[in-house]
Specification:
This protein folds into 3 domains: 1-80, no CATH class; 83-196; 204-236. The protein is built from 6 helices and 11 strands. The protein has helices at residues 8-20, 62-71, 98-109, 185-192, 204-215, 219-236; strands spanning 24-27, 30-31, 34-35, 76-80, 87-92, 117-119, 125-130, 138-142, 145-148, 153-156, 168-169. A hairpin with a 2-residue loop joins strand 8 (138-142) and strand 9 (145-148). The radius of gyration is 26 Å and the shape is globular. The protein starts with 7 loop residues before the first helix and ends in a 5-residue tail after the last helix. This is Bifunctional DNA primase/polymerase.
């Protein structure tokens, strides 16, 4: 890496790109009770992009990164997730039961591999896994558990959170200290192929359709529909000789 003269945050951003090949881009920064965007109604203080193209700006080009942090020395650092940086993230929010949800999964399926982990400014966790292929962003796979994949990003150390605390890498699971591992198959299956239970049809639905049919003038539909209802009831054993 060239000897760029840049701020401490800029040096870390350059290291992410040069040593880990992670695509970075600058975020706004908390300024007291405000965001550096100075929008009094900002709902994402210190977490949204400074660049015009946002996530699409993410880069490993050291000259580009150096230019960003010369322009915004205290900018928070974001890393694009998914194929661009080679990892996906399990985002654990304890405020919404994330640790409890994860413990339930671990108790049922077994422990997670000892991969890279980070502590968020609010005390949550980011667990990084080697990218297994195309994994999209998903929210609330269980209470307090989100996934950051294609089209997503995470805020990373030493970025400042609105609460005044900094993001940091978990001491025993820092980049360059431990390797990235793939997530276990059971977790990948849960993320890429969620089970959606379809609610059973209520018998009342049939009668609602009849009423709707009358209202819309579908006389032929209404004339035939009761016989279909009776046939279904007979087949299901609701009526018998």
């Amino acid at each position: 890496m060239c000897n760029y003269r840049v701020s401490p945050n800029g040096k870390v951003a350059l290291a992410y790109a040069s040593k880990l090949n992670w695509s970075v881009f600058p975020l706004h920064t908390p300024k007291g009770k405000l965001c550096s965007c100075y929008n009094p109604n900002c709902k994402s203080t210190g977490k949204h992009p400074r660049t015009k193209n946002g996530l699409k700006s993410a880069s490993t080009n050291l000259d580009v990164i150096n230019g960003w942090w010369k322009k915004w020395p205290d900018a928070n650092i974001a890393i694009a997730t998914g194929q661009q940086s080679g990892f996906v993230v399990l985002d654990i929010d304890p405020r919404h039961g994330g640790e409890d949800s994860l413990n339930l999964l671990i108790n049922q399926y077994g422990p997670l591999p000892e991969t890279i982990q980070a502590i968020t400014g609010e005390g949550g966790r980011h667990i990084l896994f080697k990218n297994p292929g195309y994994v999209r962003n998903r929210t609330n796979i269980l209470p307090g558990l989100d996934v950051r994949g294609e089209g997503g990003y995470i805020v990373v150390a030493p970025s400042l959170h609105a609460c005044g605390k900094r993001y940091e890498w978990e001491l025993s699971s820092r980049p360059l200290s431990v390797a990235l591992y793939y997530m276990p198959d059971w977790l990948l299956q849960m993320i890429v192929d969620p089970v959606v239970e379809k609610p059973a049809k209520k018998p009342d639905d049939y009668w609602i359709k009849i009423i709707q049919g009358v209202g819309e003038g579908r006389t032929e539909h209404v004339r035939c529909f009761p016989f279909r209802v009776l046939a279904k009831a007979w087949d299901s054993g609701s009526y018998s000789l």
